[in-house]
Amino acid sequence: MSEERRKRQEERGGSTGDGRSKKILIYGGILILLAGAFIGGRYYRNHKYDSFAKCLATKQARMYGLYWCPHCIEQKEMFGEAFHYVPYVECAIKGSSEMAPACKIAGVKLFPSWQFGEDPPKEGVLSLEALSDKTGCSLP
Question: Domain check: are 128 and 70 in the same one?
Fold first, then answer.
C-alpha cells in the first residue's frame, strides 16, 4: 500500500485490520447462533414428551418391564429422556430368575405391559397414540 493511501486511511480512522476483525465477529456470531439452534433442537427432541409422560403418571398408568427385554427398551425409547417421568416397575430381579413381587401381584406375564388404574395389564408395545387414547393425555 502506498504511503499516501495509508495516510488517507488513517485520517478516516480505519486500518486494514478492522475489516478482518468485523468478519471474525460476524462468523463467530453466526457460529454461536447455529450451535444454539442445534442444542435447542436436540433438547426439544429429547424432552418434547415430558408433559405427556407426567400426564400418564397423573392418570395412574404404569409400565411393567424387564431391563433386558428388547421390546421394553423399544417402548422406553419412544419417550426419549422423558421416560423417567413414566411410572415404571422393573420386574426382573438381577441375579435371580424370580419376578418382582409387585409384578406378580399385578398379574403381569408378558413384557412390556401397561396398567391403567385398576384395569388388568395390557401387554405389548403400545404406540404413544394408543397411550394417549387410553389415558386422555394429549401428545405434543
Answer: yes
